[in-house]
Amino acid sequence: MRSELFREGLLEGKVAIVTGGGSGLGRAAALELARLGARVAICGRRREPLEETRSLAPDGAITVDVCDVREEQQVDAFVEQVLERHGRIDFLLNNAGGQYMVPAEDITPKGFRTVIRLNVEGTWLMTHAVATKWMIPSGEGGKICNVTLSPHHGLPGMAHSSAARAAVENLTRVLSIEWSRFNIRLTAIAAGHFETETLLTKYPEQVVRGVAKTVPLGRLGRPEEFAWLVAFLASPGGDYFSGAILTIDGARDNWFGPYPPPGLADESGKPPAEARRPRA
Ligand SMILES: CCC/C=C/C(=O)SCCNC(=O)CCNC(=O)[C@H](O)C(C)(C)COP(=O)([O-])OP(=O)([O-])OC[C@H]1O[C@@H](n2cnc3c(N)ncnc32)[C@H](O)[C@@H]1OP(=O)([O-])[O-]
Ligand SMILES: NC(=O)C1=CN([C@@H]2O[C@H](COP(=O)(O)OP(=O)(O)OC[C@H]3O[C@@H](n4cnc5c(N)ncnc54)[C@H](OP(=O)(O)O)[C@@H]3O)[C@@H](O)[C@H]2O)C=CC1
């Protein structure tokens, strides 16, 4: 299948890594990069979903490795394997991540560490390995894109993850400065609510039922909308983006709920305006 948006061969010759490529946003991104001609290496903890992603891509476009991004030795071995196989790495999407929903007072020290370790340490280990094994010594640089969370003003029930994603966004900013001398460009995509299978099945039913109503556009994002942004960043169109946090969330960061709020609009859907007072 061809990309619905971009020209064929746009990413010919490029090599990309997508962590967590076996499902949801990671799968959508890996498939779009592969459709555009990139060779894509995906990883995750379970082989089966990764193989399924591979089976959906053009023959030979996607390779699969089991790798837990929290484990330093596995990350090193994975990156070395990709370099052995493909000889270069142009683009890294740190998509593997997540959390569980829980009131903050019920987060145990182990639970907090678990979420920080996956999102912050996992992202860091992969970023550091790709930079030090290829992007810096090759002299070629490259692009690294992290996945974070919108809303930035805090997501109740996800205190651990809100903290972790803020850390990843600042890491993105500081590395975009430090590693500009190596021509490494870093961005973060702050994703709002996307209709992935995990989002629709992992969280409590009442949360899933109501989540679109917390988005001004009134709907969840579609995985392909995320994948198009990733492909754009990987393409020459993304060459001058660095240090930027790109929020893709149907305006969720700026408001909590559909706009106009229910009950406030007139019959045509128009929000109210105050009457002008006569001048004294
Ligand atoms: C509206 C939503 C917006 C959507 C955003 C998205 O990101 S959608 C996409 C989202 N996608 C994802 O999130 C995908 C990736 N997420 C994951 O793999 C897991 O959610 C993970 C981050 C917990 C890591 O898993 P793991 O296998 O490494 O860890 P483990 O299972 O072995 O747990 C270790 C410790 O964590 C704690 N703890 C864990 N769960 C709960 C709980 N429900 N309750 C309470 N506590 C919990 C507990 O302390 C446990 O230790 P214990 O008590 O067992 O000794
Ligand atoms: N869907 C949404 O609305 C939003 C999603 N996000 C973020 O976007 C990313 C993708 O989300 P989504 O596709 O919805 O969720 P998924 O749960 O489908 O994706 C997470 C992927 O990461 C992999 N993964 C998890 N832990 C590890 C690990 N330790 N090492 C390697 N791979 C791992 C999982 O595979 P496996 O279990 O086999 O390891 C899975 O394929 C996540 O970071 C998520 O938090 C952010 C905001 C909103």
Automatic annotation (TrEMBL):
Gene Ontology MF term list: trans-2-enoyl-CoA reductase (NADPH) activity
Primary localisation category: other
Gene3D superfamilies, per database record: NAD(P)-binding Rossmann-like Domain
Location(s) in or outside the cell: Peroxisome
Pfam family, one: adh_short_C2
Pathway assigned to this chain's UniProt record: Lipid metabolism
Coiled coil regions, renumbered to chain: none
E.C. number(s) listed in UniProt: 1.3.1.38
GO BP: any one term: fatty acid biosynthetic process
Domain Ketoreductase: 14-182
Enzyme class, spelled out: oxidoreductase
Keywords assigned by UniProt, alphabetized: Fatty acid biosynthesis, Fatty acid metabolism, Lipid biosynthesis, Lipid metabolism, NADP, Oxidoreductase, Peroxisome, Phosphoprotein
Skewed-composition ranges (Basic and acidic residues): 267-280
Residue span of region Disordered: 259-280
Catalytic reaction list: (2E)-decenoyl-CoA + NADPH + H(+) = decanoyl-CoA + NADP(+); (2E)-hexenoyl-CoA + NADPH + H(+) = hexanoyl-CoA + NADP(+); (2E)-dodecenoyl-CoA + NADPH + H(+) = dodecanoyl-CoA + NADP(+); (2E)-tetradecenoyl-CoA + NADPH + H(+) = tetradecanoyl-CoA + NADP(+)
Function: Participates in chain elongation of fatty acids. Catalyzes the reduction of trans-2-enoyl-CoAs of varying chain lengths from 6:1 to 16:1, having maximum activity with 10:1 CoA. Has no 2,4-dienoyl-CoA reductase activity.
Quaternary structure (record): Interacts with PEX5, probably required to target it into peroxisomes.
Protein name per the record: Peroxisomal trans-2-enoyl-CoA reductase
